[in-house]
């Protein structure tokens, strides 16, 4: 069994870092107008949640958090594939990926 001496960095530091990264990603989603930058901000938010899951899994000596991270990474990989395909298709037709210009597509 692991004792407290094996935890060199307290889990609260990882959770705090995760919160900061999530807030940076949220600000990026809310303030950016470029679809690629919004996409990258969403990925940052997903990775910050993964960091929190791993920190709690390590803290409670349970692997369920790490298994959940595996599924989140799988969903993120699918999101990257589908999202980039959509962005490329929109760029080919519109010659721009600016979110404000895409509002003109509404019918």
Mean pLDDT: 85
CATH fold group: Helix Hairpins
Oligomer status: single chain
Largest sheet: none
Radius of gyration: 18 Å
**DSSP strand count:** 0
How many helices? The count is 4
How far the N terminus sits from the C terminus, by CA atoms, comes to 62 Å
Strand content: under 5%
Can you walk me through this structure?
This protein is elongated. The chain is 76% helix and 0% strand. The protein has one domain (11-105): Orthogonal Bundle (Helix Hairpins), CATH 1.10.287.3510. The protein has helices at 11-31, 35-59, 64-94, 99-102. It is mainly alpha-helical.
Write the layout of secondary structure elements.
Elements: H1 11-31, H2 35-59, H3 64-94, H4 99-102
Question: What is the gist of this entry?
Answer:
This protein has 107 residues and is mostly helical.
Descriptive labels:
single chain; Helix Hairpins; elongated
